[in-house]
Design goal:
Elements: H1 3-16, H2 20-23, E1 36-41, H3 45-55, E2 63-69, E3 79-84, H4 91-105, E4 112-118, H5 121-124, H6 134-147, H7 151-159, H8 168-171, E5 176-182, H9 205-214, H10 221-231, E6 249-255, H11 257-270, E7 274-282, H12 286-303, E8 311-317, H13 331-343, E9 349-355, E10 367-370, H14 374-380, H15 385-390, H16 394-401, E11 404-405, E12 416-422
Parallel strand pairs: 1-2, 1-4, 2-3, 4-5, 5-6, 7-8
Antiparallel strand pairs: 8-12, 9-10, 9-12, 10-11
Length: about 425
């Protein structure tokens, strides 16, 4: 099998390991005495809802509403699916989130709230606090995306601008709550996944203000005023760890990046290639992470240390991109373009980086593939790799080479999958 196909097949194995249709049914509870309400938000919401429908007893009551990204819906019968904006929230998500809150508030002690939570839920389940408008929430989200803040920092802010996140959804009901979670964040802490609608929130309004200062976020005046009022204790904080409301709440992570990395490793091992998992929580600027991995690849290629060839270096996590140019691309393609520049066409070194949700940033590709001859082929087409990198235009580089990976929506999300294959 050629190196390119090996890399792509390993990515498909990683995505399959996080498929809700396969992994969710084993976690379903028995129907309660009363009603069962299914709510959810995220890129995996539709596939998670379909999995519930397929395995829920036909004679047991079931209803609900989940929100997913545009083009990520699936046909369901008992649970309604609404599509909305991501990564910037929109009015469709706001309307559906308001309806979800109303439905959750109607539940009683004998009922069950089954929450289906996955990556992307922070923007999809957007119900601004009463003193914040959707336009102001959109503007703040765009600022946070622009400045390269990590997802945990973004969610700290969003929790404190929301009527539904940061544990507030669980606090709004009297029912027992089971949240089934597909993790897209490093560390797999439920408070950071979709801004933790059912999880206790250890962060504060002051933490959100500190993030604005650290990343030089130019947020709307009313957003800053709300956070300042919260920091002074003038408006209630999010529910904290130890709050009695969480005695009837379980947050259960059912899919993680580590599980998908292990599936990729198993694939390479079956092909006679030694897999090495370097970590499921790699963060930092994508271009800088690429330089570190490039140094490791050269060490192995030239000195056979710390690993012998053939070897597949596998990693997950979520890098960031501080946008300085006007190009197209996401963190996976940016990582690969920086790696290409660093390796300078090193023989026998191939790489893939792709997002398991099928979307790299805001483009139509999951990621891309890098080969030893990528730089040479780009130069033959008149492309200057360093200029494109400076413009954050990795999409153009890999599109011209025909090396984009386009899967369409995978309807799951366990963060990025990166592999460097050294033959």
């Amino acid at each position: 099998m050629n190196p390119r196909q090996l890399l792509i097949d390993s990515f498909h194995a990683a995505v399959a390991a996080a498929d809700p249709l396969k992994i969710l049914p084993a976690h379903l509870p028995s129907p309660p005495k009363g009603r069962t309400l299914v709510i959810g938000a995220g890129k995996a919401a539709a596939s998670m809802a379909l999995a519930v429908e397929q395995h829920w007893p036909a004679d047991a009551p079931l209803e609900g509403l989940v929100i997913t990204r545009y083009r990520h819906g699936l046909p369901t019968k008992r649970i309604r699916v609404v599509e909305a904006g991501h990564p910037v929230p929109d009015e469709s998500g706001e309307k559906a989130a308001r309806e979800i809150l109303r439905m959750v508030q109607s539940l009683g002690p004998d009922d069950l709230l089954l929450a289906l939570v996955s990556g992307g839920g922070s923007s999809l389940l957007s119900l601004p606090a009463e003193d914040i408008s959707m336009d102001e929430l959109k503007a703040t989200t765009k600022e946070l995306l622009r400045c390269g803040a990590p997802i945990q920092a973004m969610n700290t802010v969003r929790k404190h601008l929301s009527s539904i996140q940061g544990g507030r959804l669980a606090a709004a009901t009297q029912a027992r709550v089971l949240a089934l979670i597909v993790s897209d964040v490093t560390g797999d802490n439920p408070t950071h996944i979709a801004s933790g609608p059912c999880a206790p929130d250890p962060t504060t309004y002051q933490d959100a203000l500190d993030i604005f200062a650290r990343y030089n976020v130019n947020a709307p005046a009313r957003v800053v005023q709300r956070l300042e009022r919260g920091a002074r204790g003038e408006i209630p904080e999010t529910p904290k760890p130890g709050d009695p409301i969480f005695e009837r709440v379980e947050n259960r992570v059912i899919a993680t990046a580590q599980q998908s990395l292990q599936a990729g490793a198993d694939f390479f091992r079956a092909q006679g290639i030694t897999p090495v998992i370097l970590g499921d929580s790699v963060t930092g600027e994508a271009s800088e992470v690429a330089k570190v991995y490039g140094a490791l690849a050269r060490q192995i290629h030239q000195h056979g240390h710390p690993f012998q060839r053939p070897v597949a270096l596998i990693s997950g996590g979520e890098c960031t991109v501080t946008v300085r140019g006007n190009g197209r691309g996401g963190r996976c393609s940016e990582f690969l373009l920086s790696l290409a520049i660093d390796l300078e066409g090193l023989e026998d070194v191939y790489a893939l980086a792709a997002d398991t949700d099928g979307i790299d940033g805001s483009e139509d590709n999951a990621g891309a593939v890098l080969a030893p001859d990528s730089l040479r082929r780009a130069e033959e087409k008149g492309l200057k790799a360093k200029q494109l990198a400076a413009a954050n235009d990795a999409y153009t580089f890999f599109e011209a080479l025909g090396d984009l990976i386009v899967t369409g929506p995978t309807r799951t999300n366990v963060n990025d999958y990166r592999v460097i294959l050294i033959r």
